[in-house]
Design goal:
Number of strands: 6
Shape: globular
Strand content: 5-15%
Structural class: alpha/beta
Length: 193
C-alpha cells in the first residue's frame, strides 16, 4: 500500500476514495461538496474515483466545486484490481441522504472498503451499517450540513496515514463480513429449521 502511494505521488496526501456509480441515491453532489470543503482546509487532500459508468457526471461535479485536475483522478478498473487501488486511501466516501431506499440498504462497497483496509465516512441514513461503524470504530458517521469544520479537523488528525486503523478495518471485514467465515453458522441455522 505504501509503495503504491509512493508510485502515484500520494504519500503525503490525505486520500479519499469513492467507488461506484453516479446514481441519484449515491449523493455524489454531497460527497464532492464535502471533499471540496475538506480540500479548502487541507490542500494536501486527493480524491480517487473508481467507476465504470457516468464519468462525465463526476467531472461536471468536480468542475462545479472547482476541484483542480491535480486534486483527483478517475479510473475504471476490472473488479479484481479495485482493492489494490482502494487500499491506498485514508478514507472511503459512503455519504447518503435520508431516503427510505438507503435506510435498509447494505452497500457492497462498505465491505469492500473495509476489506481493503479503508475506514468509511458515512451519514447515519444507512441504518443497517451506521451503528456497526460507530460501535466498532470503522470510520466516522456525520450528518449532512453546511459547516463541516469540526468534522474535517477530527477526520484529518485521526485518519491521515493511520495504519493501525486500516489494519483494524481489514481484520474486522475478514472476521465479520466475509461469507466464507460465516458459512458454517448459516448451514447450522438451516439444519435447525
Amino acid at each position: 500500500m505504501l509503495k503504491k502511494r509512493r508510485e502515484l505521488g500520494l504519500e503525503d496526501k490525505f486520500v479519499f476514495v469513492y467507488t461506484g456509480n453516479a446514481r441519484y441515491y449515491q449523493f455524489l453532489d454531497g460527497s464532492i461538496k464535502f471533499f471540496n470543503r475538506f480540500r479548502e482546509k487541507y490542500p494536501d487532500s486527493f480524491l480517487i474515483i473508481i467507476s465504470e459508468f457516468e464519468i462525465r457526471e463526476f467531472t461536471v461535479l468536480l468542475e462545479k466545486y472547482n476541484i483542480p485536475e491535480t486534486g483527483y483522478f478517475i479510473v475504471s478498473l476490472p473488479q479484481n484490481k479495485i482493492s489494490e487501488l482502494q487500499q491506498i486511501a485514508d478514507m472511503g466516501l459512503l455519504l447518503r441522504e435520508d431516503y427510505p431506499l438507503n435506510h435498509n440498504s447494505f452497500p457492497t462497497k462498505f465491505a469492500e472498503y473495509l476489506a481493503s483496509g479503508v475506514p468509511v465516512l458515512m451519514t447515519p441514513y444507512i441504518h443497517s451499517i451506521s451503528p456497526m461503524v460507530i460501535s466498532n470504530n470503522l470510520g466516522e458517521v456525520i450528518d449532512i450540513k453546511d459547516d463541516y469544520s469540526e468534522d474535517i479537523e477530527l477526520i484529518y488528525k485521526k485518519y491521515k496515514n493511520n495504519l493501525s486503523c486500516k489494519k483494524h478495518c481489514c481484520q474486522f471485514a475478514q472476521k465479520e463480513l466475509m461469507w466464507q467465515n460465516k458459512a458454517k453458522l448459516f448451514f447450522k441455522i438451516i439444519d435447525g429449521i
